[in-house]
Amino acid sequence: MTATNAPRPRLRAEDLTLSYDQRTVATSLSVDIPDHSFTVIIGPNACGKSTLLTALARMLKPKAGQVYLDGAAIASYRSREVARRLGLLPQSS
């Protein structure tokens, strides 16, 4: 496939700003998580890896930007529907 007709990833984020209260963790972050592949997010401690995963799973609302699941804003789905389509296994409970 060429880049113009490649399928969109089922999970993607565009121009996210992620924060906890007044502490901004990431700005202008965009990512595509491709289907049928193994994706690894690496970086030093406290760089925002877990925060990104939390936002992708709809457990943290971005201050700006949008997370998309199957082409629609993840915020538009009911919680049960997100749980059917997306799983997250945290390192600790």
Properties at a glance:
93 residues, alpha+beta, four-stranded antiparallel sheet, 2 helices, 31% strand
In short:
By secondary structure, this protein is an alpha+beta fold.
Give a structural overview.
The chain has 93 residues and is an alpha+beta fold. Helix content is 16%, strand content 31%. The protein has helices at residues 49-56, 79-85; strands at residues 11-20, 23-33, 64-69, 72-73. The chain has a four-stranded antiparallel sheet, with helices on one face. The longest helix is centred in the middle third of the chain and has 8 residues, at 49-56. The model has no long low-confidence stretch (mean pLDDT 89).
Number of discrete helical segments:
2
Question: Are there runs of 5+ residues with pLDDT below 50, and where?
Answer: none
How is the quaternary structure best described? single chain
What is the average of the pLDDT values?
89
Order of helices and strands: EEHEEH
The value of Rg in angstroms is: 14 Å
Q: Strands of the largest sheet, in order across it?
A: 2-1-3-4
How many strands, what sense, and barrel or not for the largest sheet?
4 strands, antiparallel
Share of β-strand residues: 25-35%
> What fraction, in percent, of the residue positions are helical?
10-25%
Shape: globular
Q: What is the distance, rounded to the nearest whole angstrom, between the alpha carbons of the first and last residues? A: 41 Å
Q: Specify the structural class.
A: alpha+beta
Number of strands: 4
